[in-house]
Amino acid sequence: MSEADRRERLAIELLGTPYAELGEVKRRVIDLIVAEAPSGISPALKTDERTFWDRLADRVAQIGGSWSFIFGFAAALFLWTGWNVIARGFGLAFDPYPFIFLNLLLSTLAAIQAPVIMMSQNRQAKLDREAAEHDYLVNMRAELEIMHLHDKLDAMRSRELVELLERQNETLTLIRSQVAALAAEAKPGPPA
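RESULT FIELD:
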């Protein structure tokens, strides 16, 4: 049987749809089953094709989304405000209350950090979608392989039952013939 015939037969048996009408993922699953090849990891998931800017965005998101950043940033804010409150009496405050320069820095940081983190999240979401598609492919293949194995086991069991019934019929026929022979031997002849 050719690969095309096997594809068509498996598509109809397992999915109830001709191979030509299947979606891309389902076709790939049927192709993997026919080829009996392992479901390899997508090359996009294996290699790191990030640019410098992608790696920088990931690093900013990693640092900006951590407790150490929050605690460090809180410490910096307390130092900034503490210095400017205490040093004001000595004329050494570089950003006196209401800390306008600090507000400018915080706004700038938020304006830059938010899009960078979003870029990292978008890229990670794309990788997550590819990983989820791969997981779906592997799970669907496993499910179809199990269904295929069930069908094979059912067919084997049906053949075994048919063979068992045939043997039982042969045994019954043999027993009937032996009973008939015994009955014929035991039958008394005509009285003399």
